UniProtKB/TrEMBL annotation:
<dbReference type="Pfam" id="PF04138">
    <property type="entry name" value="GtrA_DPMS_TM"/>
</dbReference>
<keyword id="KW-0812">Transmembrane</keyword>
<keyword id="KW-1133">Transmembrane helix</keyword>
<dbReference type="GO" id="GO:0000271">
    <property type="term" value="P:polysaccharide biosynthetic process"/>
</dbReference>
<feature type="transmembrane region" description="Helical">
    <location>
        <begin position="146"/>
        <end position="168"/>
    </location>
</feature>
<feature type="domain" description="GtrA/DPMS transmembrane">
    <location>
        <begin position="21"/>
        <end position="170"/>
    </location>
</feature>
<dbReference type="GO" id="GO:0016020">
    <property type="term" value="C:membrane"/>
</dbReference>
<feature type="transmembrane region" description="Helical">
    <location>
        <begin position="20"/>
        <end position="41"/>
    </location>
</feature>
<keyword id="KW-0472">Membrane</keyword>
<feature type="transmembrane region" description="Helical">
    <location>
        <begin position="61"/>
        <end position="80"/>
    </location>
</feature>
<feature type="transmembrane region" description="Helical">
    <location>
        <begin position="101"/>
        <end position="126"/>
    </location>
</feature>
<protein>
    <submittedName>
        <fullName>GtrA family protein</fullName>
    </submittedName>
</protein>
<dbReference type="InterPro" id="IPR007267">
    <property type="entry name" value="GtrA_DPMS_TM"/>
</dbReference>
């Protein structure tokens, strides 16, 4: 047991710090996402109406899919900038902004697909997991069915997002905190 605790909390303490910063950025991103979602909802048609029927199927894309996608784009840029500059501190490394943003966006789009699937399950009236309309009746911001479905989906997708971003998007910082390793920004900052 002591070896496991040492492995988790001593050897990987840098990862816990990254996870904490990623979480702080994530919480701010959730706020940005929810605000953007609400603005799209206020500016657009009823979120539950059909935006596009998918040809030759009984499926369709509803306005809430469009609103969530728009909110994702805003929050994705927000989160990337904060993660790049603060969480993983890769902004001062040799990695280009676009070189890191493309994988971040690709992973984000994967997370968006999962998010949209979860939201659809929570919003579809025929789903056994649909949020109850008697509780989430859209009578106030705290009872917004769309906001709660989006928030639940974000919480479900976040752990996967952290791991994949750490291992792929911001890979330059993977070895930070290991014995003998230096931070990618050490040479830039003159340490």
């Amino acid at each position: 047991m002591p070896r496991l605790l040492e492995f988790l909390f001593v050897r990987h303490r840098h990862n816990w710090g990254l996870l904490l910063r990623f979480g702080v950025v994530g919480v701010s991103g959730v706020v940005v996402n929810l605000v953007a979602l609400k603005l799209f909802e206020l500016a657009g048609p009823s979120y539950n109406t059909v935006w596009l029927d998918l040809p030759a199927t009984s499926f369709n894309i509803r306005w809430y899919h469009v609103f969530i996608t728009g909110a994702f784009v805003v929050a994705n840029l927000w989160n990337f900038q904060l993660n790049r500059g603060w969480t993983f501190r890769s902004a001062a490394s040799s990695s280009s902004w676009l070189g890191e943003y493309v994988p971040f966006l690709v992973l984000g789009l994967g997370a968006l697909v999962l998010n949209l699937l979860i939201v659809t399950v929570l919003m579809h009236p025929g789903s056994p997991l649909a949020l109850p309309t008697d509780v989430f009746d859209d009578s106030s911001a705290l009872r917004s069915r769309l906001s709660w479905a989006n928030l639940i989906a974000i919480c479900a997708v976040t752990p996967l997002s952290f791991v994949t971003n750490k291992l792929w998007t911001f890979r330059a910082v993977r070895h930070v905190g290991r014995p003998g390793a230096t931070r990618p920004t050490d040479s830039v900052r003159g340490r």
